[in-house]
């Protein structure tokens, strides 16, 4: 939903990976969701070659569900669309907030990194570079490719990281604590059941 909301006001600029997806859609057809899946599959294959531990069930769920839902929300056409006024700024910030919170949420589940996150973590492990540096280098390269293909780049393409990353971290840390609390409760419950059975 966050990705689609941002794409609806793409004249303000969108996330580097979505710049590439939109550019591929404009140049070669298919759908934006299809390009999300195709590029994600390439990244998963690369991650499997570099470091298999970041590819789990959740990686594939993320890959297909994000692609499917981007296309669904674009088709359903009920999210805010471009007005070419200050309202578009609020719309894109809303999209970025959704993306940040959603990213933290699925990562907190611990069932596998998304294709892009897993790819960047694999590169970081293999090269010894920090995750932040790998992210900047990877997304800069993707952005240049998307720009050369005619993808929508503008001010919010560069603002994304400053809004999305802190929200991702906030969501991830808070929801990770919830997941750990639930796990601890389940372990305690099982132990009590065993004691009672004994």
Would you kindly provide a written description of the structure presented here, covering whatever features stand out?
The protein is mostly helical and 198 residues long. The chain has eight helices and no strands. It is globular.
Secondary structure elements and pairings:
Layout: H1 2-8, H2 16-28, H3 32-50, H4 57-76, H5 87-108, H6 115-127, H7 131-148, H8 155-197
Helix pairs in contact: 1-5, 2-3, 2-7, 3-4, 3-6, 5-8, 6-7
Tally of DSSP helical segments = 8
Overall 3D form: globular
Q: What does the largest sheet look like?
A: none
End-to-end C-alpha gap = 50 Å
The low-confidence parts are: none
What's the helix-strand series? HHHHHHHH
Quaternary structure classification: single chain
Kindly estimate the percentage of residues that lie in beta strands according to DSSP. Answer: under 5%
What structural class do you assign from the helix and strand content? mainly alpha
Round the Cα radius of gyration to an integer and report it: 19 Å
Total number of strands: 0
- Please state the average pLDDT score: 87
Question: Helical content, roughly?
Answer: over 70%
Gist of the model:
The protein has 198 residues and is mainly alpha-helical. It is built from eight helices and no strands.
What keyword list fits this structure?
single chain, 198 residues, mainly alpha, 8 helices
């Amino acid at each position: 939903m966050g990705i689609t909301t941002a794409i609806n006001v793409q004249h303000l600029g969108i996330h580097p990976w979505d710049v590439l997806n939109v550019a591929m859609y404009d140049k070669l057809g298919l759908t934006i969701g299809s390009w999300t899946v195709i590029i994600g599959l390439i990244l998963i294959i690369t991650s499997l070659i570099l470091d298999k531990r970041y590819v789990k069930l959740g990686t594939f769920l993320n890959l297909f569900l994000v692609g499917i839902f981007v296309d669904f929300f674009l088709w359903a056409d009920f999210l805010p669309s471009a007005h070419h006024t200050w309202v578009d700024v609020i719309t894109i910030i809303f999209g970025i907030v959704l993306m940040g919170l959603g990213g933290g949420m699925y990562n907190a589940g611990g069932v596998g990194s998304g294709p892009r996150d897993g790819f960047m973590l694999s590169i970081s492990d293999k090269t010894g570079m920090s995750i932040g540096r790998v992210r900047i280098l990877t997304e800069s390269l993707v952005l240049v490719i998307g720009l050369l293909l005619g993808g929508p780049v503008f001010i919010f393409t560069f603002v994304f990281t400053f809004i999305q990353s802190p929200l991702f971290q906030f969501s991830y840390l808070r929801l990770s604590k919830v997941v750990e609390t639930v796990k601890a409760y389940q372990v305690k419950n099982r132990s009590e059941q065993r004691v009672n059975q004994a």
